[in-house]
Design brief:
The chain is mainly alpha-helical. The protein has 14 helices and 2 strands, in the order ααββαααααααααααα.
């Protein structure tokens, strides 16, 4: 019996390694082709007053991540995990909408409606929340639906907002997905958990392939094609792993804390300052630091260090101290919020302007 289990694990590990390697290569090659043919594809990103870049650069390279994740993960799970299949499809649609936005600059009202519909579908498929009439349980269910929907849509948009300097969004996704995969593996949930571990590792590997071309100084930007896909995919994995009892909600709150703190503090301070908070800007913490430090590399490395040296240990602690996990989540955010405030996130140093964020 022990020999059989060992054989199964070896085979699963080999399959995982092979698919991750393929995802890496596919993502890199697609991003490379897009970077070469960006002019023909109409994907040249011209810097403006909202940009953190200073020369025209090809965008949309994140499409490679979406294609690699979809084509490699979906066939391997077809018929075996309906919840995961829907999650992959929704993520792919999110990536496609993002790619169209990269090319056509879709109106914000259309994007937000699509985000609400797609997040709502994810919630229904993964959590199956429903309201049993006008009762206390029904009200609680509706409030739960509304809260998760709001937070999900906010996550989709904040991940897009945070994709503004070289390497930061791809490295953030690699951290979140890799950490989540490690927690599922450490949980020893049996063979069924591999249907979650495999997509996490494959998409993380696809991000690595893209990051080779996006590391400062970037040859190609992720664009909405990549940021939308990754936002929907990480949300999907959070909902699925939570629904199956693999990873707690508190841990999923801790892992993206660097991005969530930056985007949320920036939003609230712009609202309090009377700014047109919905207008495009470059007042996030990471953007201010990149101007102060005269480059992107140090900022991207700072966020990576926060993830590895602060958030991962706290997430691991929350996993082992489940009775205190939400308190640990609070502790994780406190210094990050202070950092954002100290960096003057959300305080405009120039008149607000109309438009939307572009990386």
């Amino acid at each position: 019996m022990i020999s059989l289990v060992r054989t199964i694990l070896v085979n699963m590990t080999a399959i995982l390694a092979l698919m991750s390697a393929l995802a890496f290569v596919v993502s890199f090659q697609i991003a490379r082709k897009i970077s070469i043919n960006g002019q023909k594809l109409g994907l040249i990103q011209v810097p403006n007053h909202r940009s953190s870049h200073y020369k025209p650069t090809v965008s949309g390279g994140g499409l490679g991540i979406a294609v690699a994740g979809t084509l490699l993960v979906l066939p391997s799970l077809a018929g075996a995990h309906a919840m995961m299949t829907w999650a992959i499809l929704v993520s792919a649609v999110g990536g496609l909408v993002g790619f169209l936005d990269d090319r056509l600059d879709l109106p914000a009202r259309y994007r937000i409606v699509l985000h609400v519909l797609l997040v709502g579908m994810l919630i229904y498929v993964t959590l199956g929340l429903s309201a049993p009439g006008f009762t206390i349980d029904g009200i609680v269910a509706l409030l739960t639906w509304g809260t998760v929907l709001f937070l999900g849509v906010w996550w989709i948009n904040l991940f897009n907002f945070m994709d503004g300097i070289d390497g930061i969004a791809a490295s953030e996704a690699i951290f979140i997905l890799g950490a989540a995969a490690s927690f599922v593996v450490l949980g020893d949930f049996g063979d069924a958990s591999w249907t979650v571990v495999l997509p996490l590792c494959v998409v993380a590997a696809a991000c690595m392939g893209f990051l080779l071309l996006n590391w400062p100084p970037a040859r190609v930007f992720m664009g909405d094609a990549g940021s939308n896909y990754l936002a929907f995919f990480t949300l999907s994995m959070a909902l699925i792993s939570f629904a199956n009892g693999y990873i707690s909600g508190a841990i999923w709150v801790i892992l993206p804390a660097a991005f969530v703190s930056d985007a949320t503090v920036t939003l609230f301070r712009r609202i309090l300052a009377g700014e047109r908070w919905f207008a495009a800007h470059r007042e996030h913490t990471y953007q201010r630091l990149s101007r102060r430090w005269n480059g992107h590399l140090k900022v991207t490395l700072l966020y990576a260090a926060i993830n590895m040296l602060w958030l991962f240990p706290l997430a691991f602690l929350a996993r082992n101290q489940s009775s205190m996990d939400w308190l640990i989540a609070l502790v994780a955010y406190c210094p990050l919020v202070v950092l954002c405030i100290a960096a003057q996130a959300g305080l405009s140093d120039r008149p607000a302007t109309n438009g939307r964020k572009r990386t």
